Hints:
Order of helices and strands: EHEEHEHEHHEHEEHEHEHEHEH
CATH superfamily of the largest domain: NAD(P)-binding Rossmann-like Domain
CATH topology of the largest domain: Rossmann fold
Structural class: alpha/beta
CATH class of the largest domain: Alpha Beta
Number of helices: 11
Radius of gyration: 22 Å
Oligomer: single chain
Strand content: 15-25%
Amino acid sequence: xxxxxxxxxxxxxxxxxxxxxxxxxxxxxxxxxxxxxxxxxxxxxxxxxxxxxxxxxxxxxxxxxxxxxxxxxxxxxxxxxxxxxxxxxxxxxxxxxxxxxxxxxxxxxxxxxxxxxxxxxxxxxxxxxxxxxxxxxxxxxxxxxxxxxxxxxxxxxxxxxxxxxxxxxxxxxxxxxxxxxxxxxxxxxxxxxxxxxxxxxxxxxxxxxxxxxxxxxxxxxxxxxxxxxxxxxxxxxxxxxxxxxxxxxxxxxxxxxxxxxxxxxxxxxxxxxxxxxxxxxxxxxxxxxxxxxxxxxxxxxxxxxxxxxxxxxxxxxxxxxxx
Length: 323
């Protein structure tokens, strides 16, 4: 049974209000490191990215039944150790899937039609029409790598553009009416646009490297709204310079810290980063693809629903054991 929950970051008021209304005790701690907390009294924790939930944290929180991360990724959690301890991991990718999909399409439209560049030029009194002749999404082939919540939402929203949409995923049989699931070789052969919608794991870390990029039959546009570490930035810059990649829409960067707060807190940033920020071929946003007013509520709502459902399951399990 879940009784006491620790909230580690400020979220939509809906979370605490609803959990308390359902009878849970909710404590808030938005500043302390975990070694200053009495974690043993909590049955669950709710956070985004403020703290790393490693095995030392989990050992201190010896009564944990769940760890809830608001958002889609769980890379700040030692998942293997949590599973070993029988702790349920909860996330809410359903809550921001539409925000991410809309953002990805918005960035792609801006890049393919030179919207941001031409806006800056007009602000400087320059009126370049032919230089800013764009390309249409219509009849292009879009390759989606990772066909989970955000990948599916991206494909659904693209369906009105009359493009051919292909998807690749490590799980079989998850293609749908919006995207045809194919082998990765087909993605390499046909894609005009690639959009990443993968979790950050050992397998996806640095997956977009130059050897990967070289396998594409033609130049393409690249979108990344998943995790910055999935792309080796130096290799991306090389591909932008030699024309293997037409342009990149990056909401996430390899140089982000674990809390995704501010890359400029670092003492030094590599030359490849400065190439990106000065390139007309690149659009950058500060990890805000899933960061809408609507998604903030929807993610928190989904977390609450999953906590309540987990508690019901635990209660049923306990009652069953009594008999």
